Amino acid sequence: MGFGDLKSPAGLRVLNDYLADKSYIEGYVPSQADIAVFEAIAAPPPAELFHALRWYNHIKSYEKQKASLPGVKKALAKYGPADVEDTTGAATDSKDDDDIDLFGSDDEEESEEAKKLREERLAQYESKKSKKPAVVAKSSILLDVKPWDDETDMAKLEECVRSIQADGLVWGSSKLVPVGYGIKKLQIQCVVEDDKVGTDMLEERITAFEDYVQSMDVAAFNKI
C-alpha cells in the first residue's frame, strides 16, 4: 500500500488517480491522513494533475488547524492504493540537473525560478478549473423506515415518505421487509446531491410523519 515516491512525477500521478473519485485520503472530511500525505509532498502538483492539485490547495488551507483535524496520523505507507509500494523518502543515486526545489534554496536565483514556476502552475490550474464544469458529488442511500406496529398503513407511510421533495433528491425503488411479529419496515432507495441533501435532513423530514413513522435508519450509504 502507498503512493510510491510522492516527490516524483510518478508518485503524484498515482495520488491524482487515487483522488479522481475522492475528496480526501480517507473518509468524507479532512483528517490526519490528509496531513500525513500532504507533508510528504515536496511541492504543489502540476496543473495537469488537477485532482491532486485541487486536494493539495484545499488541505493547505487547513494549515493552522491541522493539529485539530480528526484521526491519528499513521505511517505514509498505510495510505493509498493497495497495489503500490510506498517509496517516499527513498534514497536515489542520481538527481535530474533540471529538478527545482520548490521549497527554497540557498541560491536566490533558483528560489525566484521556483516561485515563478509555482505561480504559473497555479494560474494554469485556476484557468482549467474555471473552464471545466463542476462535478456534482452524489450518493446513493438506502433507508429503513420503521412503523409503530403491524396495524400501521404501510402504503400511506410510503406515500408520506415519497411526498418529501427537495432539490437534489430523487426517490428510487422500495420494498417491505419483515422485521418480526407481523411488522414490516419500508426499505427505500434514494439518490442525493451531497451539497444539497443530507441524512439528517431526511431523518427530520421522514420522522415528522409521527402518526406512521417510529424511526428511520441509514441501511447503506455509497458515493456515486
From TrEMBL:
Coiled coil: none annotated. Residues 102-129 form the Elongation factor 1 beta central acidic region eukaryote domain. Gene3D superfamilies: 1.20.1050.130, 3.30.70.60. SUPFAM superfamilies: eEF-1beta-like, GST C-terminal domain-like. GO terms for molecular function: guanyl-nucleotide exchange factor activity; translation elongation factor activity. It holds the Pfam family EF1_GNE. Residues 84-114 are annotated as: Disordered. Keywords: Elongation factor, Protein biosynthesis. Residues 138-224 form the Translation elongation factor EF1B beta/delta subunit guanine nucleotide exchange domain. GO terms for cellular component: cytosol; eukaryotic translation elongation factor 1 complex. Residues 95-112 have a biased composition (Acidic residues). Catalytic subunit of the guanine nucleotide exchange factor (GEF) (eEF1B subcomplex) of the eukaryotic elongation factor 1 complex (eEF1). Stimulates the exchange of GDP for GTP on elongation factor 1A (eEF1A), probably by displacing GDP from the nucleotide binding pocket in eEF1A. PANTHER family: EF-HAND AND COILED-COIL DOMAIN-CONTAINING FAMILY MEMBER, ELONGATION FACTOR 1-BETA. Belongs to the EF-1-beta/EF-1-delta family. EF-1 is composed of 4 subunits: alpha, beta (alpha subunit of the eEF1B subcomplex), delta (beta subunit of the eEF1B subcomplex), and gamma (gamma subunit of the eEF1B subcomplex). Interacts with elongation factor EEF1A1. This is Elongation factor 1-beta. It comes from Trogon melanurus.
